[in-house]
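Provenance and format

Records in this collection were gathered into a single text stream. Each protein contributes a sequence line and a token line. The two records reproduced below are adjacent in the stream.
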Amino acid sequence: MAQAQAQAPHPPLEGAQLVIGTIAVSLAVFMNVLDTSIANVSIPSISGDLGVSADQGTWVITSFAVANAISVPLTGWLTDRIGQVRLFMASIVLFVISSWLCGLAPTLPFLLASRVLQGAVAGPMIPLSQTLLLASYPRAKAPMALSMWAMTTLIAPVAGPILGGWISDNISWPWIFYVNIPVGIIAAGATWMIFRNRDSAIRKAPIDGVGLGLLIVWVGSLQVMLDKGKDLDWFSSTTIVVLALVAVIALAFFIVWELTAEHPVVDLSLFSRRNFTGGTIALSVGYGLYFGNLVLLPLWLQTDIGYTATEAGLVMAPVGLFAVLLSPITGKILPRTDPRYIATLSFLIFALCFWMRSRYTTGVDTYSLLLPTLIQGIGMAGFFIPLVSITLSGLPGNRIPAASGLSNFVRIMCGGIGTSIFQTAWDHRTIMHHAQLAEQANAYNPVFDQSVRQMGAAGFSQPQAYGLFNSMATQQAAQLGVNDLFFVSAGIFVALIALIWITRPERAGGDAGAAAAAAH
């Protein structure tokens, strides 16, 4: 009897309960996503305070990313065994405790252990936030639930570096973790108050120990390879080669095992659904491009244009303006239109923004930097909401947590892959362009010869003139390299539109609405 009651769908929330529930879930998501980027700019402060090198300090980011990537796809399996509300609550509470431990860390090993715990418990939080929100809203307003979720997911990565830099500069690095404590306590209290009687059925499925072990091996190897590849010069390093081989072999065994296991830890059969596959790949590759550029643009501004970390962060901040203003509008019009049209428009806007950035010069002004960022906010308002709606289209409620967890896992992995690829590709393109520019530095080039003579007339010696030319060539090469990546990003976004149109989402919000109606 209890099992039957637990499986019965819960009615949508109304009034103040709906508002409080939405705020609670959104706060938890914001806290989670913020923590993926807030520590990035604080690595020098953390490394100096703990007496370790900056290279060792980057493990603060890597440890969180590895644990988080492993735990996200386990959401569906954990939900079956624990219940979605209890699992969500446990994630928030343990996240707060691990954040407190991170702030207290007296040594690097203690901090890394705390970050591993923090990343592991953070994994189910984002997929379950989608599930809880979809179940809380009436069928017709399910897209609005996704718009609330999307706003926090889009703003947090931009706010993280700004907040992290300000805290490190003006207070001390432990506070980048302590800020999670009050937010987490409020989110946990409100979540328990609203959702405690809305838990899902518990099913004691056997533990897929082999699948879990293979997942940990291949995801851990791949994540460490991506994070350390640039520092170790990629495949010229034996360590990177070994990690790559381990990841590929473990992944192959993992796929075969999970597709044949009676109780798989990750439901890979979801990829047999056209909507899930098309929506997940389009969303994940698009997110990888967005996140890679989110890292590349501030890095370029700081290393080659002379911006400070705070100034570079502020250049990125306006992206959230239109995203916040327009996401609720997207949620309102989504039930009345085909989500593929909104997603297509979003991808075209992203392509336009990256094309505009591909025309930057070393003398770029603030207006030229801010205009594409503002326009990108319009595209972001139509990025997550329709694609998540397409991905979950037609799925029964009991598969929503597993589908959301697997989709978010692929998205997070693509974000990490995008970051690594963009940083490495920028280095390679910069070196190539520098070599091409250096070829022009010879006495047989009248333009170069005249420039050297003019520098000599201005009081520069020949070595000084050559040094100045090399400095200018280095800056210009970096500029051309970053322009190449912006241009390629624009082209890939246009190409991804084809993936959107292989899907066949249900009309009139049936996709998200069906999920909402059956999410329990």
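Adjacent record:
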Amino acid sequence: MRFLDSNPASAPTPNPSPLLPPGGRHLETSTDFMWTIAAWDRDLASYAKRFPKYLDFKGTLHQSAAQLQRCLEFDRELDLIAERLGHYASLRSSEDSSSEANLARESRFQHVMIQAAELAAFLTPEIQSIPDESFAQFLSEPSLAEWTIKLQKLRRYKPHVLSENEERLLAMVSLPLSGIQETFSQLTNVDMNFGVIKDDKGQERELSHGLFSSFLVKSDPELRRRAFHQYYEEFQAHRYTLASSLIHSVKTDVFQAKARHHTSAREASLFSDHVPVSVYDNLIETVHAHLAPLHEYYELRKEVLKLKELHFYDTYVPITARMEQQTSFDVACEKVVAALHPLGDEYTDTLASGFRDRWVDRYESKGKRSGAFSSSSYGNPPYILMNYKEDVFSDVYTLAHEAGHSMHTWYSQREQRFQDYHYPIFLAEVASTFNEELLTHDLLEKTDDPRMRAYIINRQVDDIRATLIRQTMFAEFEKLIHTMDEAGEPLTLESLRSVYRALLERYHGPDMVIDEVLELECLRIPHFYSAFYVYKYATGISASLALSQQVLAGGEAERTRYLAFLKSGGSRYPLETLQLAGVDMSSPQPVAQALQLFAQRVRELKELL
């Protein structure tokens, strides 16, 4: 439904693993073999020849349910092909974003998609213009039964859909408006050079995004300090370019929200999930009310590490002796699969098979996208991109996290039609952090060693801190800078730094020394260039903590209910889906309960240490 969503979800996150032959039952493309670049070129050309047929439906959608169905089927057929074309192009770019050929391929695809979007701009306005009585009659027709969910969701956008010409204009400017994210990615992943630094063994290593996190968990405080400042020197050198990019990203969000008659950029972003802004505000207010245990934790860190001053670069090094250990990728896979046994054999057998069958692009390489993610296209296996490091045990958790996304996709594809299988990010972050909680539980169950227990609890404390509290700080920053722009207040490098520093001081408390260069963190977080995403990490872990406790304490009923959540895809709005799974995210209670667990774990950690 690429052209029938007035506020479409972003394309699936790219992944560099090679495409496998399509296996979905409903896949309707002609490419039933592993794609080569030549095959991709051929299918893009074929798609470009077919999309002008959209105009055959123009002015006819109000005539009958049968005609509307034919249009929907045509759109789905082309969207299936477009999803795979875009997915393949983005996979190759993520594999090596310094490759001119990869970048050119993505550019060609985007150019064709803009042309298609221009021709198809009439679809949504024309469907929205069908009189209410006729639309209700159409929905009662058996021929549209499998489209009911999609059409009802589409109809909800009626107040925010523009005229055909206006929709066509917005389609034409979509690529230029989205170019800020590409600029940020190219600057930070390709152009920036962080230099060479000596590691704890005296060997020179090239500093990178991935190795930066490795250095922050080293026991030598001077090494952590040097890595931190050397890393941020490069951001300091590009601070004005980055600030300009972030400011224009905010202005783009505000423009698009105004163009579609939303009250704010934040409300516009939450609209597609049918999530009221009160959920966002409840999250921030609840975290504000529970910051004392975080400050207590930082005080404990400072004491255990025997530091005169606690800096941000001291907040990731383990405060237990067991943290620095080598974990091979294969062992990591075994640990993750074993931990997820409460979800049943089908879940664990499928995941174990996926790990063996090249679902994962494992290690860092030059030009490869930083971080980690999971993605897929309909009828194809899910893929995981990682930059796995054997000396960073948190990467085992990252693998469990991305496996949650992958299995969510696997179940959703198997149970839902193409038009209903795309689950929203709000739900995706539940499935991923749920897996992390099961991993923590399994590791704690399998050890009586106080030092290992302290390490695992420390890891969970840091996980909740990073996923719930830190992401809420990020979410508050996004809210504040968008509100400033909407109120006509100037956004500048200095105002961005000032807002961010105030948040750093509030969230981190009196025991943390805030280095001036840490203010530049607000310019380097990729999610800030796709705003109002990060709050879903915080709500996701809050929901997943509640659901994981239900599954671990329950039986077949609780497991079945959770698997039904994974299978639901995008067939319901996220708050309703979670309510059926057993947690009410319209209430601040799940967030408060998660923060109470955080406080409990901090107390346990203090006792163990």
